[in-house]
Amino acid sequence: MAQIFDRSSNSLARMSLILTGLIVIALGVTLDSLQRSPWVTRQGQRPDQPVPFSHKHHVQGLGLQCQYCHVSVEKSSYAGIPPTKTCMNCHAQIWTNAALLEPVRHSWATNESIVWTKVHDLPDYVYFNHSIHVNKGLGCASCHGRVDLMPLMYQQNTLQMEWCLNCHRDPAKNLRPVSQIYNMAWTAPTTDKPVWCSVNGEKTGTPTAQTVDCQTQEPGKTDVASLDLNAVKLPGMSSQMTAAMPVPVSYTKFTSQRDLGNFLIDHYKIRKPNELASCEVCHR
Amino acid sequence: MSSDNGNGMMKHTSGVETPEAFVALNAGDKSPAHPNAELMTASGEPMTLAAVRKSLEGKRGKRYWRSIDELAGTPEFAEAVAKEFPDAAAEWVDPVSRRGFLKLMGASMALAGLAGCTKQPDEPIYPYVKQPEDLVLGKSNYFATAHPFPTGGIPLLVKSDAFRPIKVDGNPDHPYNLGSSDVFTQGTLLDLYDPDRSQHALLRGTATEYVDFFEAYRERLIAGKADGGEGIYFLSTSITSPTLQRQWSEAQKAYPKAKLVQYDPALAGTAFASGLNPQFSLESADVIVSLDADFLSGAAYPGFHKLVREYAARRKNPEGGMNRLYAIESSPTTTGLKAEHRLGLRASEIPAFAAALANAVGASGVSAPSYSWTAEQTKYLNALAKDLKANAGKSVVIPGLYQDPSVAALAAAINQALGNAGKTVTTTGSAVFVDQIADLKSLVADLNAGKVDWLVMLNSNPVYDAPADLNFLSAMLKAKTSVHLGSHVDETGLEAIWHVPAAHYLESWSDVRSYDGTVSIIQPLIEPLYGTRLTHSFRR
């Protein structure tokens, strides 16, 4: 009886088996990278805005502080988008005829909102609180990137859940002293550029971040920190003020982000990953 | 299919008209043999005994038939059998739709997770032009206001997010409720956002403008200046707002012949509506007696918030001396379940029991009614009287809201006899005696007599909740003009000539008196969502 299949059928069958496996794998990889691609996450995209507002110009060029516009970042879950009034504080007097600012003047005149497109848009099922992050040593730039260098606003990070967890599993790698939160150019401490921190009268009821004092200058070499305030009365300083200002006991020198991060986790009372295991922390 | 028809199956003998007749026939054919002449065989020839015999010829074994028609094998019968379950039949018979259904279900189950992979749409931000100074977006504000309720206002502290009220709770700083509220109050937030709320003024069911109504209303009021407002009637729920009361007395001066009727279905005819509003202080009461008073269940009992709080406070702190609750009641209630000693009595027996108790504790002018109590009831009565006398001045008797008015009077007499008055029971405020039922009856009589020119119904729904024997609807239709102010187009709103949408209390300025007499300001938390109006705006 003649063979129904030619000899080459063997390799064809093997090939098609392998090919099927490869297609399945390729499909998985494609979907996975699609889900993480900027097309879905909008990472790095600069959506059209009614006014091409430049953070670079306003922050780096003019030196506006973040909170001048994003007023509620330390107080509320929502950092706040400035009302038209904030723009008009200055632009009622400068660039009053600039064509770019026409939407601002229109909003001011008609009492209608300037309709921005949200750049950092978390899904509605995510609860994110700005104030807790800012008050516990996470700088603006850690999530938003170097906003002071962005002529047009874009999203630096994916804002996907894996990105959240990436930091929450090991917060130490991103923490910085709360005094450096708005410092866009902050970099981790190194041997060349150490950070000194001390803890003053840690007691219950005090906001934890305020009991930690960190400096980028060596304390012994600056004036105030090492002064014995009880012995030396500075002119204009009342005795009450002197009493209220505790004398720093001792500063610890940090030369690596890891050491500083672990120190801040302890003293800012930051919850460990196992203490954040509950889903409803973020999905309320 | 009802098998009732099975008994009256004779009608199908005149030929087969409806499938129901057949199915009923299946269900139980108890009818005697039918006149065969009127039945037909499948071949169309009249069924005769011979034809039946012919069809059975050559058939063997047991063979059953459910009816003579099946035997006859009529096509109508076959159709009726197929339609025995007409609703479900198509689903099971039609293979395509069933299969398609399962396919679609399977596909949607399998692909359900894909819905999470969609790209988020662009989201706009609408910032303020001038942001209010006290607003921190993301942080809630709290505003003090009050919920007007027929038994007295409930002072509130309302949580508001970006100036939208989102949670209603009692005001913790108010001496009456100290932060507590109740189910009715909690539910009012849903009323505010109810999409079924009335949104337009209606004239005979057609949307119109409020100004049109107001024009007509003002014309009537101007005309009323001359005749003293004769024929103008107001029907309102119990007025608990001092400002509304003052506005009414001013209106009464300008229009002496205008009439105001207050009617609350849950309060009309009770001792509360009759002006008796005793304040019970359970803080200092060691023994509490409820005479069919369900004061622990909900806000329907006047003064509920204070009563339940003070009752529970003594329970939570046994070292401070627990109180003891006796409940004599006609139906199982929360109060009865909480009571140490519960006695179930018929509602009609409770006045007699109250009188017997009053007599036992020595209330003056009360004689024990001759009523044959059971041994258990007598034992309860004696023990209760003994306990009350032992705790004179430290006890309180609370009468039921829906009991005979004599129970309220007897409870007052017992409290007086025990020296509780002034200690655990006080009477505050100048109660105005309003007999709501008599007032409503006279209103209906005036309506039927054609004396009513304008009937203005303020936040009330008498077509629904007036006693049925008054036949309010037919009386209301006799008014020349009827006006309904209400949050919804309810039964009354449908029948009234004018309907005006009412503002929610969270959209209103007003004031209200709580049960303990304190007055709270009602302040709005939000601009009226629709063009709604206040009760106050009807008093001009």
The largest sheet of chain A is: 3 strands, antiparallel
Note poorly predicted spans of chain B.
1-38
How many strand units of chain A?
4
> What is the averaged pLDDT score of chain B?
82
Q: Round the mean pLDDT of chain A to the nearest integer and report it.
A: 85
How far apart, in Å, are the first and last alpha carbons of chain A?
72 Å
| SSE series of chain A | HHHHHHEHHHEEHEH
From the helix content, strand content and strand pairing of chain B, which structural class follows?
Answer: alpha/beta
Q: How helix-rich are the residues of chain B, as a percent range?
A: 25-40%
Content of β-strand of chain B? 15-25%
**How are the strands of the biggest sheet of chain B laid out side by side?**
6-5-17-16-15-7-8
Main pleated-sheet profile of chain B? 7 strands, mixed
Describe the structure.
The complex is a heterodimer of chains A (284) and B (540). With 284 residues, chain A is mainly alpha-helical. Helix content of chain A is 34%, strand content 5%. Chain A contains 11 helices and 4 strands, in the order ααααααβαααββαβα. Chain A has a 3-stranded antiparallel beta sheet, covered by helices on one side. In chain A, helix 5 (84-91) crosses helix 6 (102-110). The N and C termini of chain A lie far apart (72 Å). Mean pLDDT of chain A is 85; it is low at 222-247. Chain B has helices at residues 19-27, 49-56, 68-72, 75-82, 86-93, 95-111, 183-192, 210-227, 242-254, 304-316, 334-338, 350-360, 375-390, 405-417, 436-448, 462-465, 472-476, 491-495, and strands spanning 124-125, 141-147, 154-161, 164-170, 201-203, 206-208, 232-236, 259-262, 278-280, 287-291, 324-329, 341-344, 395-399, 425-427, 454-458, 481-486, 498-501, 510-513, 519-522. Chain B contains 18 helices and 19 strands. Chain B is 34% helix and 16% strand. In chain B, a hairpin with a 5-residue loop joins strand 18 (510-513) and strand 19. Mean pLDDT of chain B is 82; it is low at 1-38. Chain B is α/β, with parallel strands linked by helices and 540 residues long. Chain B is extended. The relative contact order of chain B is 0.12. Chain B has a 7-stranded mixed beta sheet with strand order 6-5-17-16-15-7-8, with helices on both faces. A 4-stranded parallel beta sheet of chain B has the order 12-11-10-13. Chain B has a 3-stranded antiparallel beta sheet with strand order 2-3-4, with helices on one face. The chains are: A mainly alpha (284), B alpha/beta (540). At the A-B interface, strand 1 of A face strand 1 of B. Strand 1 of chain A pairs antiparallel with strand 1 of chain B.
